[in-house]
């Protein structure tokens, strides 16, 4: 998901809409905005579909007045699939000291247990979303102000959270102690904003100030930014898959360009898994920077052998398997004139179920390629993510049930190689590779080493 908040500008909701539009790649199912103006109170709008199709309409935007607003774009991980508008964030609660709205990116790993406890004690849930627990935990807190109630609530929550919240006068940002999901602070004129990624600062002309740190809470008013560290400091475990796929390539994470990391993954891959061929071709768009790096390092020409229809969304994020299956053809087509007779290296970011790779291989062979070699910009995805990326159950992950050789066979390609974990860490700027005693990132979907025990899943029978 993507979160964005803005304080201290006229019609803050318009800024939020633009920010969410720049974060659309983080969630395409639905979006929502809550705003506050003293004379109008809190207002909210939640809609299915793209930001640009909803939050551009004057008739809707004029219902969201005020100098303070937050918003969310949704990509469902926990909670019901397919959709109910009641699951669309931000969530809102009325407390004795006033209202508050929250927007959450991440996934709460003890949400089932919390929900059971809260329902037993009288909470009435409105949605099936894990994030709603935060509002109910806040309602039960005895603290006198909303930021302290949020602290209380988030201390009971396990897993990954980057939260943007608002009261009548404050914009609040929090990251979990491991800093699994991103959150950055920006400044525009007299106003401040919080965003999942820096690409959303660029769109509103905001200046990048800094990242919210793991375990940090910032409370922003018209007077400025106040920072506290309510959560126990641990060494950070940012999601390495943000670098590989999730974030936009024009965003900066930890002072590092996402594009540059992806390009460097291609360089590392070309060193680790060289092969004689005529053409390096990305699976667009997610494989493009790595393919550029691969071509550069190997000296093999780069070409657009697959053309993407720009009017389709990301296939993976379409919620049902059936739509996902059709998606590949709706979205990608082979550039036959370029492919015919060539030995082609295809570079993609990841293999999850293997459906994308299989279809693409067929399309490339149909177009008359002489050989097809897959090079993948992440290690084999053998474990599900429980921290906010929607990987399927373990049985559906190709790499969970097959060796690399079996995967090559299954995909029917001439060769298949994945970048090593160390190669990925080097590409992300860790010259010494992965520190196995204390990994610098979360890489659980590749290594099976979960930095936070996924309590709900273990209760449901998941085996580490
Ligand atoms: P597959 O067809 O192997 O199940 O999916 C792999 C494709 O899905 C890749 O091309 C990748 O770009 C895309 N993808 C989109 N979202 C995600 C995600 O959340 N996780 C992973 N691993 N891949 C994703
Ligand atoms: Fe990111 Fe993978 Fe960790 Fe999930 S399991 S947070 S996708 S690195
Ligand atoms: Mg892709």
UniProtKB/TrEMBL annotation:
Residues that hold [4Fe-4S] cluster according to the record: 239, 385, 442, 445
Active-site residue list: 1
PROSITE patterns: GATASE_TYPE_2 (PS51278)
A GO biological process held by the record: 'de novo' IMP biosynthetic process
Catalytic activity: 5-phospho-beta-D-ribosylamine + L-glutamate + diphosphate = 5-phospho-alpha-D-ribose 1-diphosphate + L-glutamine + H2O
Binding-site residues for Mg(2+), renumbered to this chain: 286, 348-349
Pfam family, one: GATase_6
EC number: 2.4.2.14
Keyword Amino-acid biosynthesis set for record: no
Pathway assignment: Purine metabolism; IMP biosynthesis via de novo pathway; N(1)-(5-phospho-D-ribosyl)glycinamide from 5-phospho-alpha-D-ribose 1-diphosphate: step 1/2
Name of the top EC class for this enzyme: transferase
GO MF annotation list: 4 iron, 4 sulfur cluster binding; amidophosphoribosyltransferase activity; magnesium ion binding
Glutamine amidotransferase type-2 domain ranges (all copies): 1-223
Superkingdom as given in the UniProt entry: Bacteria
Keyword line: 4Fe-4S, Glutamine amidotransferase, Glycosyltransferase, Iron, Iron-sulfur, Magnesium, Metal-binding, Purine biosynthesis, Transferase
Cofactor(s) for this UniProt protein: [4Fe-4S] cluster; Mg(2+)
The record's free-text note on cofactor binding: Binds 1 [4Fe-4S] cluster per subunit. Binds 1 Mg(2+) ion per subunit.
Function: Catalyzes the formation of phosphoribosylamine from phosphoribosylpyrophosphate (PRPP) and glutamine.
Protein family according to the UniProt entry: In the C-terminal section; belongs to the purine/pyrimidine phosphoribosyltransferase family.
Record-linked HAMAP family: PurF
Protein's name according to its UniProt entry: Amidophosphoribosyltransferase
């Amino acid at each position: 998901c993507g979160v964005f908040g803005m304080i201290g500008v006229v019609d803050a909701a318009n800024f939020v809409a633009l920010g969410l539009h720049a974060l659309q790649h983080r969630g395409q199912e639905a979006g929502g905005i809550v705003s506050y103006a003293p004379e109008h109170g809190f207002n909210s709008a939640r809609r299915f579909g793209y930001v640009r199709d909803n939050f551009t309409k004057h008739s809707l935007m004029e219902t969201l007045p005020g100098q303070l607003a937050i918003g969310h774009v949704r990509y469902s991980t926990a909670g019901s699939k397919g959709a109910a508008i009641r699951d669309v964030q931000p969530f809102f609660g009325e407390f004795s000291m006033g209202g508050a709205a929250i927007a959450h990116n991440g996934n709460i790993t003890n949400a089932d247990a919390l929900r059971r406890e809260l329902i037993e004690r009288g909470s009435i849930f409105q949605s099936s979303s894990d994030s709603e627990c935060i509002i109910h935990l806040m309602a039960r807190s005895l603290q006198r102000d909303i930021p302290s109630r949020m602290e209380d609530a988030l201390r009971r929550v396990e897993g990954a959270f980057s939260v943007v919240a608002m009261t009548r006068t404050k914009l609040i940002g929090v990251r979990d102690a491991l800093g699994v999901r991103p959150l950055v602070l920006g400044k525009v004129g007299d106003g401040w904003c919080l965003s999942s990624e820096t690409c959303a600062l660029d769109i509103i002309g905001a200046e990048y100030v800094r990242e919210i740190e793991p375990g940090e809470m910032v409370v922003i008013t018209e007077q400025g930014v106040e920072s506290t560290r309510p959560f126990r400091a641990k060494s950070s475990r940012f999601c390495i898959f943000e670098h590989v796929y999730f974030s936009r390539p024009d965003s900066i994470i930890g002072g590092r360009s996402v594009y540059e990391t992806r390009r460097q993954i291609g360089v590392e891959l070309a060193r680790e898994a060289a092969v004689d061929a005529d053409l390096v071709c990305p699976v667009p768009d997610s494989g493009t920077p790595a393919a550029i790096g691969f071509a550069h390092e190997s000296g093999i020409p780069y070409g657009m052998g697959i053309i993407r229809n720009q009017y389709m969304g990301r296939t993976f994020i379409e919620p049902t398997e059936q739509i996902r299956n059709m998606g590949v053809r709706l979205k990608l087509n082979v550039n036959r004139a370029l492919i015919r007779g060539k030995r082609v290296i295809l570079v993609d970011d990841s293999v999850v179920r293997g459906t994308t790779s299989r279809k693409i291989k067929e399309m490339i062979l149909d177009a008359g390629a002489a050989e097809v070699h897959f090079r993948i910009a992440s290690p084999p995805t053998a474990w599900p993510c429980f921290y906010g990326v929607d990987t399927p159950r373990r049985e559906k992950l190709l790499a969970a049930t097959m060796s690399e050789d079996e995967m090559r066979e299954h995909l029917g390609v001439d060769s298949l190689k994945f970048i090593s974990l160390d190669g990925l860490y080097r590409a992300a700027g860790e010259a010494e590779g992965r520190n196995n005693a204390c990994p610098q990132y979360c890489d659980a979907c590749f290594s099976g080493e979960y930095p936070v025990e996924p309590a709900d899943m273990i209760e449901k029978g998941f085996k580490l």
